[in-house]
Write a structure and sequence with these properties.
Tscrpt_reg_IclR_N, globular, alpha+beta, Urocanate hydratase, DNA-binding, Arc Repressor Mutant, subunit A, 13% strand, 2 domains, Beta-Lactamase, five-stranded antiparallel sheet, WH_DNA-bd_sf, 276 residues, urocanate hydratase activity
Length: 276
């Protein structure tokens, strides 16, 4: 996480419109995870790569504006009511999530996998919604968890479908994680696009996966109100989700479920043409 501040400085040098103070404040808000029992300034500084003195000023300001609170312990911060209100506005403006819920829960139950919705977050993939299979033990990935672009099916699907004008920035933001560079990203992109063209879903090579305890298959969905695709994924332990099962059963079911969502939304199938 120490590279976050460095990435901000690089972006500022590239574009004079980039406002570093705002970016730093947002990086503080993004440091929080659902499992956190509050964060102190030192922990926020560690996660963001920002100096502790800078974090102290930012948390003071964000608390004053209601975006952070520290009601239980004065030295530890939590997301505040203003941030909750902002999140509710954002969620309400993305209409497909509520419609996708019953479909993805059905898919999770049918396949015994954890179904999830992921979006690109700079140079990583952020989980924003999960659907756990009922009465079936599955892998545990919580909302707010971030996956690498390289070595995850969700990340490979992002690289394969990201609009060309956004690809370079995503690769720069991820550089250094799992050795991803422009050449590696181009190779992953080509492989993912080939898989999407042939079968409609992406499966990262399990030997390159970020964790030996996860297998996953992913497919994109392009919301009308977003500039880039989001990714739907099904994942489970390797013993429960073999490569053959991903390819022959779960991948096709995932693809069909997302196609059903597209039909409900009155959209055609996802096309890569707009993103090459």
């Amino acid at each position: 996480m120490r590279q976050s501040a460095k990435r901000m400085r690089e972006d500022e040098a590239e574009d004079p419109r980039f406002l570093t103070t705002l970016a730093r404040g947002l990086s503080v808000l993004r440091a929080f995870r659902p499992s956190d029992d509050g964060l102190g300034n030192a922990e926020i500084a560690e996660r963001t790569g920002l100096p502790k003195s800078t974090v102290s000023r930012l948390t003071y300001t964000l608390r004053a504006l209601g975006y952070l609170s520290n009601a239980r312990r004065r030295d530890r911060y939590r997301p505040g009511p203003a941030l909750l209100a902002l999140g509710n506005v954002a969620a309400a403006s993305i209409s497909f999530v509520d419609l996708a819920g019953p479909l993805m829960q059905r898919l999770a139950d049918q396949t015994g996998t954890l179904a999830l919705l992921a979006v690109r977050d700079e140079g990583r993939v952020l989980l924003v919604k999960t659907w756990r299979p009922r009465q079936v033990s599955s892998i545990w990935l919580e909302v707010g968890h971030r996956l690498p672009l390289s070595g995850s099916s969700s990340g490979h699907a992002v690289l394969g479908t990201l609009p060309a004008d956004l690809l370079g920035g995503a690769v720069r933001a991820a550089r250094g994680e799992r050795g991803l560079d422009a050449a590696g990203a181009a190779e992953i992109r080509a492989q993912a696009q080939g898989q999407l063209a042939m079968q409609g879903f992406v499966i990262a090579d399990p030997s390159t996966y970020f964790s030996p305890n996860v297998h996953a298959v992913s497919t994109p969905f392009q919301p009308r109100d977003l500039a880039e695709p989001v990714i739907f994924t099904c994942g489970a332990m390797p013993a429960d989700l073999t490569l053959a099962r991903m390819r022959d059963e779960v991948g096709p079911k995932l693809r069909a479920t997302v196609r059903e969502l597209e039909q409900i939304m009155g959209q055609g199938p996802f096309s890569q043409r707009q993103n090459v």
